[in-house]
Request: fold
Amino acid sequence: MDQLERIAHMEGILNRGREAVDALEQALEDYAAVREELAELDAYYSGDLWRRDYDDDAAGRIPKDLKRGVLSEDAVYDLLTDRDRLRGRLEKLGRD
Reply:
């Protein structure tokens, strides 16, 4: 790689790196803003209230026009699992 190619290549790395770092910074800020709420959701999902709400929905006692994705069996579980997986990835990146 000659000098001009090297400079152009490194410029590309600089630009992609800046975009990635800025996007990660924003994502971390977004996550920090909902972190406590996710803990609240986790407590709800693992407690008796979620099961009661789920059972009431299955029995038709929850209005059908109410958004209730939180009562699906997978949506909350998948979100919390993804959160934990990403937390592990961030911890690993911090060690490397």
Remarks:
- Residues 3-46 form the longest helix (44 residues).
- The CA atoms of residues 58 and 71 lie 10 Å apart.
- The chain has a mean pLDDT of 95.
